[in-house]
Amino acid sequence: MTTLPQNATAASDRSHTPATGENTTPARHGLAALTLGAIGVVYGDIGTSPLYTIKEIFAPHTGVPLDALHLVGAISVIFWALMLVVTLKYVILILRADNHGEGGGLALTALAAKAVQSRPALRGGLLLLGMFGATLFYGDSVITPAISVLGAMEGLELVAPSLKPYVVPFTLAILVGLFLIQRRGTAFVGKFFGPIIVLWFVVLGFTGALQIAQQPAILTALNPVHAYEFLASRGWHLFAAVGAIVLAITGAEALYADMGHFGRRPIQLAWTFVVFPGLMLNYLGQGALLMSDPSAIQNPFYRMFPDAWVLPALVLATLAAIIASQAVISGAYSMTKQAILLGFLPRMAVRYTSAREVGQIYMPAVNWVLLAGVVAVVLFFGSSSALASAYGIAVTLTMMITTVLTFFVVRDGWRLPAPLAIGATAFFLAVDALLVAGCAIKFLDGGWFPLALGLLIFVVMSTWLRGRALLLQSLRRDGLALLPFIESLDPRSVHRAERTAVYAVADPSTVPQALLHNLKHNQVLHERNVILTVVFHDVPWVPMERRLDIAPLGHGFWRITVNFGFMNTPDVPKALELAQAHGLPIPMFETTYFLSRETVVPTPGAGMAGWRERLFATMSQNAGGVVEFFRLPGNAVVELGTRVQI
Questions:
Q1: What is the 3-state secondary structure of 53-104?
Q2: CB 251, CB 47: distance < 8 Å
Q3: Whole-angstrom Cα distance, residue 432 to residue 451?
Q4: Which of 208, 219, 253, 238 is closest to 44 using CA atoms?
Q5: Which of 131, 263, 440, 622 would suit a FRET pair with 206, their CA atoms being 20 to 30 Å apart?
Q6: What's the CA gap between 294 and 488, in Å, rounded?
Q7: What does DSSP assign to residue 413?
Q8: DSSP one-letter code for 3
Q9: DSSP symbols for 491-511
Q10: How far apart are CA 66 and CA 57, in angstroms?
Q11: 233-285 pLDDT, tens per residue?
């Protein structure tokens, strides 16, 4: 099994799944319940796009005239963008590229890397590409809550124009409250997500259908010829229009990212029968309204409602925006946990907020960093229109990276014919390139923000990844070989304690520093000594029957490798209970865990640039505790420090 670099989303621990590692969630729960859950979690982001998309397409900076011809053309482009990018690319193709039932950028990266494992250079390049794609998700995690809630709260201006100055303060109050309650767990904030979002899509479709009935000419937008003519007629102004139209498909990545929670079939059913019809009826309805009343461009979404219904619509839109925000916040927790397990980030505190669902997690550090970022962008941009300039570039780049990674899965993993794989990839890359170019022209107007944030996180991740490799090299270079050391021990000269010692190490071929300290200072050796290494593999789940690899080394020593997938919960004591079946009892109350905590000392040399070595040393010093991360019993841990030069 291929392993990614070692380091110390939410889904439950699948350690009880079959040996194949397949996701069995759809088999355990009703299809209807899973479909309802998928509507509530997966489609919150893309479901709130009608709040601001049409308004942005006809904003002055795009240069698109507000007339019947261009209304039909713009709506036609939205329809076919949803058909090609969301339906064809994601719902039909990408959802098939599951990593043992799991989806998302890191799962796809692991799958692509495994497909080309015989080519190390290419594999390393795909890992870096996938890592960069993962960092872009954090830019989306900051912008989505801000633009969704701002777009909803701007309906206050229609309720009472005097409330306009309160849009930003109310938005900040809602967002701060949302982040503050995260510690209560996703079950607390997500209990009613499904029904609310279903109601939201029903309202989208119903209000749109009413407008279509009054102006049925808008239905000609379903003809792809109008989409082509709209794009062809724009000339160099094409990219400005595309940069606004792309807002209609932001959130498409969530279809794949959340596949492990609900399964492929429920996500496909939700899109086909609820989400896509609701979205398109609403977009068509907004176009029909503007054909009849161009002055409604101020806020076409809310202007579809009678005055008496604007306030209830505002409340429902706010709830939908909160749900859309919750989806990316929970996704950020899950993405960060996966990145930690794959060795891309240092350990952080992970709090499990459910006794039944281990995947329901809360990460305080991620939560407060996201909150700070969201508050900053709300204050800096101030409106959904201004934020629309920053929105999209990170998402479209992620879509392009997904297309590239999927090619290697399709060609090298599935062994599909080269013409088919290359042709499909070229087509989707052309679409992705157009979307990226449309968003790139907004770079100076705010598009720089998610890219800058993604690059910053990429530097952090790549520095940690490289630093861990250098640290492991240093430990191997300076350490004593384990097997000769064990053979050299004189049982008569060393006192044996009748207990079990577990030495957690990064390199199982060298003598643990904690063991050397124990012999030097305490002059004692335990009756049973376990050299423990934890390895995270590039599959989501490693079942219990493959959890342990045990090798007796003689003289009271054993080498144990504990195997986890990047979605498993790394509960080491629970895993070590399985050693009993191999003839090695490790009683919980008679075992001491010895840990070596390395203090990294940056030194001049060819390892990394000096500033990166100092950054790695700082991250290493502030990394979360091993005890909490691996769920070790705190009263049975002895931690010893050692200085390591890199």
A1: HHHHHCCHHHCCCCCHHHHHHHHHHHHHHHHHHHHHHHHHHHHHCCECCECC
A2: yes
A3: 17
A4: 253
A5: 263
A6: 88
A7: I
A8: B
A9: GGGSEEEEEEEEEE-S-TTB-
A10: 10
A11: 988 889 999 999 999 998 888 788 777 767 889 999 999 999 999 999 999 99
